[in-house]
Amino acid sequence: MTKETIPAQEIINATCKALRVSFELLKSPNRGNEAAEARFIIFHLLREYTDLSYPKIAEKFNRDHSTVMYGVETFKTLVEGRNKKFMEKIERVKMINPIAFKSLLQMELELQDLEEEQRSINEQLNQRLTDLGNSVLYKKLTEVLKKKEIIYKNQITRLQYEY
């Protein structure tokens, strides 16, 4: 089964947009904090949500595969350390493309929950329709029985007068 759920270019574009950096800057030799941290985020997302290898990711950014490996590890370190500024950047990327930060497992669990909720609603609806149908049938049956009782009483009364 393929791992790709989000096209690589969509991840790159969303991150660049959220962090207000150009893709050209990220491909450049610039080692400034803004460019480097944007690359760390993109490298992580590309590894997490595509089948791209380290060398293929590196190729997109004019980098060596070891730079991408370092970026992915640095991403993890910054997240684990709860680096405030870095976490704010991640939040901005989430605002642009929140699905990029959900694991497939999370999405599958949410889908299962929604399917279960739909089944429950369908069962409740079917029960209500059955109850409603039974209620209508009960009323009709009661009316028929009352009419039969009236007819029966009339016949008994008529028979009593005849004798």
From TrEMBL:
CDD domains: Bac_DnaA_C (cd06571)
Repressor is among the record's keywords: no
Record's keyword annotation contains tRNA processing: no
GO molecular function: ATP binding; sequence-specific DNA binding
Keyword tags: Coiled coil
All residue ranges annotated as the Chromosomal replication initiator DnaA C-terminal domain in the record: 7-75
Segments forming a coiled coil: 104-131
UniProt-listed Gene3D superfamilies: 1.10.1750.10
Gene Ontology annotations of biological process type: DNA replication initiation; regulation of DNA replication
SUPFAM superfamilies assigned: TrpR-like
Cited SMART domains: Bac_DnaA_C
Protein name in UniProt: Chromosomal replication initiator protein DnaA
Biological source species: Sphingobacterium spiritivorum (Flavobacterium spiritivorum)
